[in-house]
Amino acid sequence: MIGKRRGLTLMEMMVGIAILSLVGTGLLLSSGQARSRASSQALAERMAEVFRQARETAVASGKPVGVLLPVSSGAPLCDGYALADGALKAEVKRSIRFSSEAPDCYLFVGHWPLGSGQNSKPSPLKGANVYDLNLQTWAPPGDHAVYAYTPLGTLLSNQVEFDGAYHLVACQSATWSSQQVGDVDSARLNAVNHPVTLRLSKTGQVELLPGLASQSGVTLGGVAPITTQVQPPLSPTPRSTNSTPVIFDVEVSPKPEPGTRPTGATATVALDSYLTVQLKMSDADGDSLKVDWEVKVVRAAVTNLPGTFSSPIETHSQIVDGYQISTWEWRPPPGAQAKDQFELTATVTDGHGGTVNVDLDSVLKKIEILEPGTILFVDNQRHGNREIYRMNNDGTNEVRLTYTLAEEAWPQLSPDGTRILYTRNGQLWTMDIQGQDPKRILRASQLPPHQANGEPMESIIASCWSPDATQCAVIARYGGETGGLDVYVCDSDGTNRVRANDDQGLSVTGAVKVAWCFKGNYNPANLSNQYLLFTSPYDGDYFSFPLSSLGYGDVKHDVPPNPPRYITDIAASLDGRVAWIENNQLWIGDYDPSRSRALQGNVIASGSDIAAPSWSPHCDMLVFSRGDRIFRIPPSGGTPRPLTGPNNALEASWGP
Questions:
Q1: CA-based angle 68:74:78, to the nearest 5?
Q2: What is the C-alpha to C-alpha distance for residues 447 and 549, in angstroms, rounded to an integer?
Q3: Which of 11, 23, 64, 464 stands 20 to 30 A from 641 (CA)?
Q4: What whole-number distance in Å separates Cα of residue 364 and Cα of residue 341?
Q5: 313: pLDDT confidence band, cut at 50, 70 and 90?
Q6: In the sheet that 91-97 helps form, which strands lie side by side, from edge to edge?
Q7: Residue 38: how many CB atoms within 10 A of its CB?
Q8: Which DSSP state fits 157?
Q9: What are 374-402's pLDDT values in tens digits?
Q10: Half-sphere exposure of 562 (CA within 13 A, CB side)
């Protein structure tokens, strides 16, 4: 027999209801806490993204971008933020509150006790990460925490820091007390509900940390909900008036030496180079200034160049001593050719209707494209020893190429413009056009000794390239300072060394220059019209060897005149002409060994210390040194144009 099921008594029903009630309450509490933690986490994640985007915008735009939190030491909780930017002064662009995304959540701005280390007043980074930004003058007036990202990606703030960073706490509620850290008014956190920490590194990183980072002595939980109204974030302010931007200075580099620019041009630039244009400016309203550049073709060899075109390149701006410095690198456009002329114009705007046209007439009215070519020279004063430099063929853009304690001399650029031949402490070296990859290709001791007496070569005095750069000519000395000389030809890597003069040697006590000269059209296989020319200032004469009889050639020179000619320097062009220094005068002419006076020509310049002529690659110009400066002059003569200032520039050589 199956018994009947007994029903629940009243007492049993009451106990069951109580148990269910307790369980339900626990579940509700647990669910509420989870929602609170989730809300704090959501707010922390949202603000982390705000800070990351502010940093990216600052780096991309080239001007500081700030996140502003409306707090003070007595009211350190906020439920919104403002975004601001500006080169010299911050302007609020947006204002956002948390209520739509994270209701009843706040950011706490202040400090709290640490388990190790100490809270400290804000300090900027040092070294390369420094950006000149004064938060007191940059930020809008009023009580708010400022977190400003610089164009370097670094972070500046007016808040207390620890662990090399600034910290914010996303939370439901908190209690605090006012406290100074150093001379900074701040809020000390005493208790907090459901915290999630944002760590803002001064180098730009943003991290989320669960709970309260480095917590010590702060109560977690048990804080009553916030009932007081928190301060709203700053709102964008409409502008009733606007100041016009002011231009203080315009600088262009490389800057040519006075008197070196072509007629009518205010600046020059090589086809493969660029001009750096820098504007120094400011705006009384603190607005970020934008520069728009326009280029106008003044004179063009190619008729299909557009008449006017805008710059596609963004300028880079930074703040220096309270001024906005805008920098632009301008390169000649595709299709430009030597002697083309361009004019640059610039307009500066502040984004609020303020506009000013920049006066560039004195510096960029006409930019002329330089003919190809690089000039090498030696300076023996700036660094205590002889170093090699290069510059454009108008004297601009000087670049130091060697950094040694050795003595470099007579740099010569190869005909293809890739390698530099020079002597270093009596040995023969090459390097590339940037001064890199130096290689010693020949020691004096590697040359055949003087055959008549067997004396070894002790130092290489001078050298030059063959017209096709496959070989070099070298002058070397034996027997000390008063010994004789031999002349050699070798391959461009220093191998296959052959003496040019006969075995008797030369009764010459010194030489400074050697030139590879040819008559008519150059053909490397035809040696019958090729000669080596070199000079000796000690003997007051010049000498030559026919390359058709290497090792057996007789010395050729003029019948010694009375008085001597005193030819001290010589250079051959790629079209067969010769330039030389004779009796303190620069001569242009030709070499003809069939004449009794083989060197004949005309004087184009003079000076008591004139020296070192060198032809341009197109043979339409020469450089020479006079005193401690380098000049250029056409072969037809005229007034020499200085390329360098008085800085002991010597031994110039013009290459591609």
A1: 40
A2: 18
A3: 464
A4: 10
A5: low
A6: 91-97, 80-85, 65-69, 145-149, 155-157
A7: 12
A8: E
A9: 999 998 877 778 899 998 888 888 899 99
A10: 0
**653 and 647 in contact (C-beta within 8 Å)?**
no
pLDDT in tens, 316-364: 777 787 788 888 888 888 888 888 888 888 899 988 889 999 988 877 7
Cβ-count burial 542-553 (b if 16+ within 10 Å, e if not): bbbbbbeebeeb
Whole-number pLDDT of residue 585: 94
Q: How many CB atoms neighbour CB 560 within 10 A?
A: 11
pTM (global) more than 0.70: no
| The predicted structure's pLDDT at residue 9 | 56
- Sheet with 498-499: list strands edge to edge: 459-465, 471-477, 485-491, 498-499
Taking CA 629 as the corner, what is the angle to CA 628 and CA 632, rounded to the nearest 5 degrees?
A: 150
* Distance separating alpha carbons of residues 164 and 180, to the nearest angstrom: 19
The angle formed by the CA atoms of residues 286, 290 and 294, to the nearest 5 degrees, is: 150
- Phi and psi (nearest 5°) for 11? -65, -40
Phi first, then psi: what are they for 25, rounded to 5°? Answer: -60, -40
Q: Which amino acid is at 219?
A: T
Neighbours of 559 (CB within 10 A): 7
pLDDT at 547: 84
Contact 178, 152 (CB under 8 A): no
Terminal Cα distance for the chain, rounded:
121
3-state SS, one letter per residue, for 380-416: CCCCCCCEEEEEECCCCCCEECCCCCCCEEEEEECCC
Rg over alpha carbons for the chain, rounded to the nearest Å, is 39
How far apart (Å, rounded) are the C-alpha atoms in residues 627 and 290?
47
The residue with tokens 């401690």 is: 628
Q: Residue 495 in contact with residue 481, Cβ under 8 Å?
A: no
| pLDDT, tens digit, 9 for 90 and up, residues 499-545 | 887 655 555 555 668 899 988 888 888 888 888 888 776 666 777 77
**Residue type for position 147:** Y
In b/e form, how buried is each residue of 220-239, taking b as 16+ CB within 10 angstroms?
eeebeebeeebbebbeeeee
**What does the DSSP assignment read for 191-217?**
EEES-EEEEEETTS-EEEEEB-TTB-S
CA-CA distance, 182 to 250, in Å (whole number)?
A: 43
Cβ–Cβ under 8 Å, residues 141 and 109: no
Residue 440: Cβ within 10 Å count? 12
Separation CA 81–CA 96 (nearest Å): 6
Which tokens is 211 given?
């709970």
Neighbours of 216 (CB within 10 A): 10
